[in-house]
């Protein structure tokens, strides 16, 4: 079931993230275009807290991924970043390790869950 604030990943064409001017545009793009095969093996509930932009909850289950705007479930892992840093990170312009070391990317909760996200970011 799809509502205004819930969308499921569907196979798509992908594309450059750098053309998106906001985190909201990025999460909308990802919710419609990420190939579920890329999400296979990722399990858990993640909260993306993008300062200045909002929060998104992503629930990964056996290749099925649901993204909802807001904090809708108890996350196992929370990823926090500023909007500009987040967009640079997902476009490949900012290295995740460097972003973490410099404090531009912060995580709390199950760090092994955070590591699983490297397959899709």
Automatic annotation (TrEMBL):
Residues 34-121 form the SCP2 domain. It comes from the Bacteria. GO terms for cellular component: cytosol. Pfam families: SCP2. InterPro entries: SCP2_sterol-bd_dom, SCP2_sterol-bd_dom_sf. This is SCP2 sterol-binding domain-containing protein. It comes from Rubrobacter taiwanensis.
